[in-house]
Amino acid sequence: EISEMSERSKQNVAHGLAWSYYVGYLKIVLPRLKESMEKFSRANPNVLAHRETWKLHILVPLSCNICDDLEKADSNIQYLMDLPETTLTRAGTKRRVYKHSLYVIRNEDKLRTCAVEFATPLQSLYAMSQDEAAAFSREDRVEQAKLFYRTLEEILQGAKECAGTYRLIAYEGSGEAETHFLSHEILRHLQQQCQEEYAVCPASPCSADLSLQISATDLPQPLRSDCP
Questions:
Q1: Which has more pLDDT, 117 or 88?
Q2: What's the pLDDT tens digit per position in 6-65?
Q3: pLDDT tens-digit profile of 151-163?
Q4: Angle, CA of 50, 54 and 55, to the nearest 5°
Q5: How far is CA 79 from the centre of its chain?
Q6: 99 pLDDT band (50/70/90 cuts)?
Q7: Residue 145 belongs to domain spanning
Q8: Do the beta carbons of residue 63 and residue 145 sit within 8 Å?
Q9: Residues near 106 by Cβ (< 8 Å), separated by ≥ 6?
Q10: Is there a contact between 102 and 113 (Cβ–Cβ < 8 Å)?
């Protein structure tokens, strides 16, 4: 009976998608990311200048509106090249390839390079809200997107092997109202990471100006009740 109630209220959707995304993808690629970036940096010493941003930046639009081509989503985001591939035999597939793309993010005088991609399970949530057979409303989609983010955040926080290898970027807007919304959002997170790196030193002059710009109350909050 509890299982049926959960199915009817869509409570299992986001939870299952978050765990599947972690177990089937992030748990595989994130522990190997730093090594891949080290290898890339040795071959291209001037591209990844800011070591504190050597992470996979995962975009989590709560609208679930995902554009397959980041360059079309925002002209200030330009594809640069791919990081070295990881090849594994997985679930019967020989030499399955996992790779990440590097992008140059531009904004006026700022120019940064980082690995960035969308959280692909959100495409499933969006598709379900467009399919009558799923009986999945827009309101369901937004709530499940928030739950997906909170669940994924908690999973990754408990995964020691993934520490320091990712950055979740959740946002409400789709970027339609502002042409360069997405590049601004990514650059804001990149700047935060640089500030956080310097702020670990109490004497750092950046510490007084550090502003993490915590998301508004409508954005996802931690699942655990003991979190601030």
A1: 117
A2: 445 555 788 899 999 999 999 999 999 999 999 999 988 888 878 889 999 999 999 998
A3: 999 999 999 999 9
A4: 140
A5: 17
A6: very high
A7: 2-199
A8: yes
A9: 76, 77, 78, 183
A10: yes
Using N-to-C axis directions, what is the helix angle for 138-157 and 121-130, rounded to 10°? 160
Split into its structural domains, the chain has a count of 1
Cβ 73 vs Cβ 82: under 8 Å: no
72: domain CATH number is 3.40.50.12100
Q: How many CA atoms lie within 13 A of 224 on its CB side?
A: 9
Indicate whether 222 belongs to any domain.
Answer: no
Whether residue 219 lies inside any domain: the answer is: no
Classify residue 164: in a domain, yes or no: yes
- Flag whether pLDDT at 220 surpasses 70: no
Q: How far apart are CA 21 and CA 92, in angstroms?
A: 19
Is residue 199 within 8 A of residue 206, CB to CB? The reply is yes
Any domain includes 213: no
